[in-house]
Amino acid sequence: xxxxxxxxxxxxxxxxxxxxxxxxxxxxxxxxxxxxxxxxxxxxxxxxxxxxxxxxxxxxxxxxxxxxxxxxxxxxxxxxxxxxxxxxxxxxxxxxxxxxxxxxxxxxxxxxxxxxxxxxxxxxxxxxxxxxxxxxxxxxxxxxxxxxxxxxxxxxxxxxxxxxxxxxxxxxxxxxxxxxxxxxxxxxxxxxxxxxxxxxxxxxxxxxxxxxxxxxxxxxxxxxxxxxxxxxxxxxxxxxxxxxxxxxxxxxxxxxxxxxxxxxxxxxxxxxxxxxxxxxxxxxxxxxxxxxxxxxxxxxxxxxxxxxxxx
Length: 311
Known about the structure:
Helix content: 55-70%
Strand content: under 5%
Number of strands: 2
Radius of gyration: 21 Å
Number of helices: 10
Structural class: mainly alpha
Shape: globular
């Protein structure tokens, strides 16, 4: 019998779904401190005075300055504040967004071997919107925890389930879906840029120029390129989304009002607050996630083959 290679057989939808969620959780464990630093930098300047933790006012400067300040003032665990909600988000969000991307792309191409840029963009927008609709409450709780200073002041939320209950009680169930509009916009941009760019770079290097094989170096290069392009394009919407989701009831009338307030009070540069941790986080997250995803798909397909093939 000819030796089986996992890459010889396309992965099933279940393999993609489980593999995407698992890989995204692994990537989040590695990059969560960068995401927390990004949130702190993005919301800084929203109030007139810096946050006071009881140790004096705190002002964050740069990605590594933010991380060191948080560790010094709040302790190392503060970098992983909201991790439980973050993992819940990734397992539900990435499973849909990435796991269903190929299936939705095939739906739009109607079985054709030619996959155009339009089909890729439509698939990215569709799976991104579906994922946001499902995972928005987990994203709201994650951002609230990351923005919450855990030193010198009473905490608003004392646990993940407490956060869900408190938000639903104080703001209604709609509060758990706060910021869905800007989040769908943000994720449409991220999904289209990230998945399409990853897809195009990978296809260009493997199918067209034959520079690389479909293996680890190719996945690494494609993922890093996708992360850079995504950060440049999506940062303004990401800042608005973070601020609006973290805002107190009545602070902004809409996401557009939040964006206008930012522009009026802080100028255009406010839309790129937290750019460096956002790039470092998204670039490294993409590398860990996509490389892990590709390897998990192959491992699960090999395990599936061994399970169904008689000895």
